[in-house]
């Protein structure tokens, strides 16, 4: 993966909010976006972690377990605090 700079198109309101969030944290918009991107798991990464957790708990990773895990992630994402 390249560290070559690029640009992302967004609304002025979003850009202004990102600028404010970055200033409050003493960082740049670029660093803020990099932190955000690294702090979120892709669905594939979530699935891999679920498989690893099931193995550690000595659980058979059935479709039912997978669906329960996905339901939990969906609830976390939908929570008003935006914890995910």
Give a quick precis of the structure.
The protein has 84 residues and is mainly α. It contains four helices and no strands. The relative contact order is 0.07.
Evaluate the radius of gyration.
Answer: 17 Å
In percent, how much strand structure appears in the residues?
Answer: under 5%
Structural class: mainly alpha
Q: How many strands? A: 0
Q: What best-fitting shape do the alpha-carbon axes yield?
A: elongated
**How far is it from the N-terminal to the C-terminal residue, by CA?**
25 Å
N-to-C order of helices and strands: HHHH
Helix content: 55-70%
Enumerate how many helices there are, as a single number: 4
Average pLDDT over all residues = 88
- Poorly predicted residue ranges: none
Summarize the biggest pleated sheet.
none
Pick out its properties.
single chain, about 80 residues, mainly alpha, 4 helices, about 65% helix, about 0% strand, elongated
Task: Explain what this protein looks like in three dimensions.
- With 84 residues, the protein is an all-alpha fold.
- It contains 4 helices and no strands.
- The chain has helices at residues 12-25, 29-39, 43-56, 63-78.
- It is elongated, with a radius of gyration of 17 Å.
């Amino acid at each position: 993966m390249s560290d070559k700079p690029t640009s992302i198109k967004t609304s002025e309101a979003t850009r202004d909010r990102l600028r404010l969030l970055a200033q409050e944290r003493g960082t740049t918009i670029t660093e803020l976006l990099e932190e955000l991107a690294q702090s979120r798991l892709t669905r594939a990464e979530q699935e891999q972690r679920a498989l690893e957790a099931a193995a550690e708990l000595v659980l058979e990773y059935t479709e039912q377990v997978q669906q329960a895990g996905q339901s939990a992630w969906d609830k976390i994402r939908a929570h008003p605090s935006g914890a995910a």
